[in-house]
């Protein structure tokens, strides 16, 4: 069955299972090799790249739908998801299916809810679904050369902007860094997300004032210079700061 036949075959079934006109598109960011990545699917149809989004079942909550969609489309589970925006421009999704007639479920007008998440890519074994040729982590810095379908570039850009705003009052790093890390590695994570360099002294002072780090009696070995101290997150204080926000940043 080719990619076109897949959509035609599933259309009537999807009309019974899913809500019309509502979808969800999660933007999953990962931090690897000191760079930010985003999870994308390359579709069998049109060979364009898309976010791992999908439709909402008639018998499930929206948040439940996003969790299910991520698992089904990419094999991603157990990530902290947060809603960040609504996208509803006219013909935002319909044009992608312009080769089909108006009865196709996928060609109806869909308003989509954007979610974002942060995770460590090494935690997951990506599994592409039946509609996708591949599922991959793509460097955000290289997205300009990627053929993104629909309005998914706009959704990614809004997610990144939201992430940059959020780290001024929410902690980050727990799901992105290894269990033990240096302050310079944590600073690099903030710089990559913010897209600018930070003063090392100011950053170290501010991050330590937050009280979410535990200094370990260990150093990072193997470098040519003095071995830097290793830290880990205090999970209880981190989760409290995630819930209540940061007052000293």
Automatic annotation (TrEMBL):
<dbReference type="InterPro" id="IPR036388">
    <property type="entry name" value="WH-like_DNA-bd_sf"/>
</dbReference>
<dbReference type="InterPro" id="IPR036390">
    <property type="entry name" value="WH_DNA-bd_sf"/>
</dbReference>
<feature type="domain" description="Nudix hydrolase">
    <location>
        <begin position="19"/>
        <end position="162"/>
    </location>
</feature>
<protein>
    <submittedName>
        <fullName>NUDIX domain-containing protein</fullName>
    </submittedName>
</protein>
<dbReference type="InterPro" id="IPR015797">
    <property type="entry name" value="NUDIX_hydrolase-like_dom_sf"/>
</dbReference>
<dbReference type="InterPro" id="IPR054105">
    <property type="entry name" value="WHD_NrtR"/>
</dbReference>
<dbReference type="Pfam" id="PF21906">
    <property type="entry name" value="WHD_NrtR"/>
</dbReference>
<dbReference type="Pfam" id="PF00293">
    <property type="entry name" value="NUDIX"/>
</dbReference>
<dbReference type="InterPro" id="IPR000086">
    <property type="entry name" value="NUDIX_hydrolase_dom"/>
</dbReference>
């Amino acid at each position: 069955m080719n990619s076109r036949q897949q959509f035609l075959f599933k259309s009537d079934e999807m009309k019974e299972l899913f809500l019309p006109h509502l979808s969800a598109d999660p933007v999953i960011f990962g931090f690897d090799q000191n760079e930010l990545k985003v999870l994308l699917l390359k579709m069998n149809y049109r060979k364009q790249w898309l976010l791992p989004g999908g439709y909402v079942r008639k018998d499930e909550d929206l948040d439940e739908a996003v969790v299910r969609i991520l698992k089904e489309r990419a094999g991603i589970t157990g990530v902290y998801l947060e809603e960040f925006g609504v996208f509803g421009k006219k013909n935002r999704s319909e044009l992608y299916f312009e080769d089909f007639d108006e009865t196709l479920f996928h060609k109806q007008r869909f308003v989509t809810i954007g979610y974002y998440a942060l995770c460590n890519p090494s935690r997951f074994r990506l599994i592409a679904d039946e509609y996708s040729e591949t599922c991959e982590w793509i460097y955000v810095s290289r997205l300009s050369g990627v053929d993104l379908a629909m309005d998914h570039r706009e959704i990614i850009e809004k997610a990144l902007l939201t992430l940059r705003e959020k780290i001024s009052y929410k902690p980050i790093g727990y799901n992105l860094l290894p269990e033990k890390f240096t302050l310079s590695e944590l600073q690099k994570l903030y710089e990559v997300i913010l897209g600018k360099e930070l003063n090392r002294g100011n950053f170290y002072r501010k991050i330590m004032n937050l009280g979410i780090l535990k200094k370990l009696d260990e150093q990072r070995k193997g470098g040519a210079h003095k071995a830097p101290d290793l830290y880990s997150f205090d999970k209880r204080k981190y989760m409290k700061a995630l819930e209540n926000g940061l007052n000293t940043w």
